[in-house]
Amino acid sequence: MTISNQRTALDPVANVFKAEGFYAYGTFDDQNRWCVACDVEEGHIDIRIGDDGYEMDAWATLTGMYVDEENMRRRYALERLARVSIPAIQRGMLDDTEQLHWDDVEKGIAIRKTIQLPFATTEILPEIAMNQLNDVNETLLFLARQINS
To answer: What is the number of other CB atoms lying within 10 angstroms of the CB of residue 110?
Structure first.
């Protein structure tokens, strides 16, 4: 499917989000695929054309996990502990739809959850997206407690 066709196919998605009061816009994602993106306080949503419907990514970052730590050496040690814990957490606590990583810019753990949705869900995509973001944020808080315990 060409970029032009993807843009046309995703126009209704952007319109549904805009009608619900979200700022939604078309852009290229990190893999150079056309998507509709929506940035909200809870995180970010990307919606693309998938194999047989929509592919939705909901992602968020637990920003500044150790920003309150005044001792720089201890802060770096805590950040390193979080980074080295990520592969084990990924294998043992997350499923194939969830990807956990350390965000160097935001200085915290970040999770991206990808789900497949049928085209028939167009009208309820904002509701699904917010539910996914809530799940992602709950998972982030749970994982932060696991890392810090």
So the answer is: 22
CA atoms in the 13 A half-sphere facing the CB of 114:
10
In eight-state DSSP terms, residue 68 is T
Which residue matches tokens 């049928």? 118
**HSE-CB for 141 with a 13 A CA cutoff:** 6
Tokens of 77: 């040690």
Handedness of CA 105, 110, 114, 115 (dihedral sign): negative
- pLDDT tens per residue, range 44-59: 999 999 989 999 999 9
Please list, in sequence order, all residues whose beta carbon lies within 8 angstroms of the beta carbon of residue 102, skipping any fewer than 6 positions away: 79, 82, 83, 86, 108, 109, 110
